[in-house]
Specification:
Distance between the termini: 47 Å
Largest sheet: 7 strands, mixed
CATH superfamily of the largest domain: FAD/NAD(P)-binding domain
Number of helices: 10
Strand content: 25-35%
Radius of gyration: 21 Å
Low-confidence stretches: none
Structural class: alpha/beta
CATH class of the largest domain: Alpha Beta
Order of helices and strands: EHEEEEEEHEEEEHEEEEHEEHHHHHH
Mean pLDDT: 95
CATH architecture of the largest domain: 3-Layer(bba) Sandwich
CATH topology of the largest domain: FAD/NAD(P)-binding domain
Length: 382
């Protein structure tokens, strides 16, 4: 049975960001590391977006940037000047290639294309079994999401950010390649929080995603019908679909960190690294992975890694509202973006604002739903 210093069970975004930064730090070259995943990460299976004010280590993976974005609903639309931020698109395969190119140069890192079947923490090590082999390690970093554990509890609301997206090429020049559509709530809401998301690559190419923040997934044909309607609304008559993607991201403030142990740490979605109120993953994982690599160099007890902050509670309030009255999503986000400062909102969503800045953002939200959510959450949690 092979023993490793570190084993990563699952190689999603968080795991790959962490291993990339471990390599770049130069502090783990003498550590044996095993990555286990049944997915070889050789397909363009998803798209991530994030905003930033300066270049990052992921520049090689960024395929498009925007300085402007559109927010719209049935009653108004607003062009958002994002400066000093830029909105960035990363295609999954470009990110995988950047990370695995660096991994391939490391003699201390092994990748096992296998399915994990069992994880068991023992007194002196962690045992990991796959369909083919068994391993042990001193430290485990797990990103395999346990869906039933989260959904079989009632204390914390659980919604999904679920979507289907089409990359299309049109014969008509229908898109503005200098402006992303951040959220367009002009689509029929049907008592949910539903919006269209558009990332234009050129005047004739774009990714269009029909997205919901709600409890239940839809039939595939319903997402695609709404995308077709939106394409027609843009005046596009002739187009081809070049790629499709779909996904469902849990939105919850469930305390994943309580499952961390001295030797095993949950990361990524399994560790609550997804931004609960929006489903955004890339920026949060980028920050958390940086914190984790620094932590690994000075700490040995994974129970000390997580720190809950005020933004966790803000997210909890929004999810409480959307859990009970899912149709309020459009009005809440519209109240933020109708007159709010876009750069301050993005700073708030990045969890980098002061309390005074928090109030500038929060005060634009509908007061009564949030007051009710505050009372309910305070009673439930304290």
């Amino acid at each position: 049975m092979k023993h490793f210093d570190y084993i990563f069970t699952g190689t999603g975004l968080a795991a790959l960001m962490t291993i990339y930064k471990m390599i770049e730090s130069g502090k783990f070259a003498d550590k044996s590391i095993l990555l286990i995943d049944q997915n070889t990460k050789k397909d363009n299976d998803r798209t991530w977006c994030f905003w930033k004010t300066e270049d990052s280590i992921w520049e090689k993976s960024i395929s498009k940037k925007w300085d402007s974005a559109l927010f719209a609903n049935a009653d108004f639309s607003r062009d958002l000047d994002l400066k000093p931020y830029q909105y960035n698109m990363v295609k999954g395969l470009d990110f995988y290639n950047q990370v695995f190119e660096l991994i391939s140069e490391q003699s201390n890192i092994t990748f096992a294309n296998q399915k994990v079947t069992d994880i068991n923490e023992l007194e002196n090590h962690v045992f990991v079994a796959t369909e083919k082999e068994s391993y042990t390690c001193g430290k485990l970093l797990n990103s395999i999401y346990r869906k039933s554990e989260v959904e079989n509890q009632s204390q914390y609301p659980v919604l999904q950010q679920h979507f289907i997206g089409w990359f299309i090429k049109s014969k008509e020049a229908a898109f503005n390649p200098e402006q992303a559509t951040f959220m367009d709530f002009s689509v029929e809401q049907k008592r949910n929080t539903r919006f269209m998301y558009v990332l234009p690559i050129s005047k004739t190419e774009a990714l269009l995603e029909y997205t919901l923040f709600s409890h239940q997934l839809l039939e595939k044909k319903e997402y695609e019908l709404e995308i077709e309607k939106y394409i027609q609304k843009l005046g596009i008559q002739n187009y081809e679909i070049t790629e499709k993607e779909q996904g469902s991201i849990p939105m919850t403030c469930y305390p994943f960190w309580k499952k961390n142990t001295k030797k095993a740490l949950n990361i990524g979605t399994a560790g609550g690294w997804t931004k609960a109120s929006t489903g955004y993953t890339f920026k949060n994982s980028d920050k958390k992975s940086t914190e984790l690599v620094a932590f690994l160099q000075k700490e040995t007890d994974f129970r000390r890694f997580h720190k809950k902050n005020k933004f966790w509670f803000y997210d909890l309030l929004l999810l409480d509202i959307l859990d009970r009255k899912n149709e309020l999503g459009a009005s809440i986000f519209s109240s933020l973006f109708k007159k709010g400062n876009p750069s301050l909102i993005f700073k708030f969503l990045d969890e980098e604002t002061t309390f005074a800045e928090d109030l500038q953002v929060i005060w634009k939200c509908p007061k009564i739903p949030f007051m009710h959510a505050l009372i309910r959450s305070t009673r439930n949690l304290f």
